[in-house]
């Protein structure tokens, strides 16, 4: 067997999710039956070189000696020992960080929400194409083995067509006691649940309905509503409905997210003509789902599937990035550009209907 591809990552920022992602990169790929790629972290970029070095010392294991600590993000983009950049700054910096990386001809995996609006994303995708580099939103949930198996059942026809679904991701952040500068509350950092948590109920609607073959990638109509917190004026509770009726699918998704309520169980319920699939929460990395089969409206069979793997599950998307780059692709077929363009178009529309205007200067590109 040929040697696995060694794929070299440069990490932008040293925050919470960068920590989780890098730990997952270091999990031996063989534990998930991956033999064609291995991941290596070669550079950490922070606004402080001390923080970058502390990150290396505390998070990296075998890569510790060879990884470089940089006190700027620009030095990571310029490093010839870096193949791909992982952007893990707050959302309002994604555009500028990803654009700088693209212009340096680096491939990019960018945290969710990929940008703060659709215009920023369109500009990044155009730049990625022009510079012939791979670009993907870090929608790790889409690559979990659980999601792949969910889609197989959902699209097999065994339950008939999907009809309606509800999905929610809520986290009680204790916002009354949080500093107003925390990224979940600060409008300058794109605070509120829509941009932060909304991608997860939405990815289930994209998997269950938008990607369903009967939908033929038709766009849904969108209705949204937001409640703002008086603390900083960002949304605290947001609901949105997506109605799919332009192709052979007639189905509706009711989606919600909150930063001051505990999560719901199950996280998602997808109702079909002949059954239901219930996805356990939290929706960003569920560990099980239950399928109920109906006859004449009654449950006649039920099965639960459980999923376990080493790590938190952020490495499956990293394997996809490495393989796409190896194969000369600039886009993943699994989480393709059109899916997160839909995501950002939906968020723009929900913010428009909900009256959430980002402060001047936050959106680097507007339509
Ligand atoms: N995939 C997931 O499940 C998941 C989970 C949580 C968050 N996220 C996403 O990941 C991104 C980062 O979230 P996080 O929770 O990791 O945030 P965080 O802990 O606050 O870390 C963000 C990092 O960005 C850098 N940064 C640059 N400019 C900044 C600024 N003006 N204010 C604050 N930090 C700044 C800082 O690193 P340096 O000081 O080292 O430069 C900071 O440590 C967000 O877009 C979020 O939506 C994804």
Automatic annotation (TrEMBL):
- Domain GFO/IDH/MocA-like oxidoreductase positions: 149-277
Identify the InterPro entries for this entry: Gfo/Idh/MocA-like_OxRdtase_N, Gfo/Idh/MocA_domain, GFO_IDH_MocA-like_dom, NAD(P)-bd_dom_sf
Q: Which SUPFAM superfamilies match?
A: Glyceraldehyde-3-phosphate dehydrogenase-like, C-terminal domain (SSF55347), NAD(P)-binding Rossmann-fold domains (SSF51735)
Q: Where is the Gfo/Idh/MocA-like oxidoreductase N-terminal domain?
A: 7-136
| EC assignment | 1.1.1.179
Q: Which reaction does it catalyse?
A: D-xylose + NADP(+) = D-xylono-1,5-lactone + NADPH + H(+)
Molecular function GO terms recorded: D-xylose 1-dehydrogenase (NADP+) activity; nucleotide binding
Q: What class of enzyme is it?
A: oxidoreductase
Fetch the Pfam families from UniProt. GFO_IDH_MocA, GFO_IDH_MocA_C3
* Gene3D superfamilies given in the database record: Dihydrodipicolinate Reductase, domain 2, NAD(P)-binding Rossmann-like Domain
Q: Which UniProt keywords apply?
A: Oxidoreductase
Record family assignment? Belongs to the Gfo/Idh/MocA family.
- State the name under which the record lists this protein: D-xylose 1-dehydrogenase (NADP(+), D-xylono-1,5-lactone-forming)
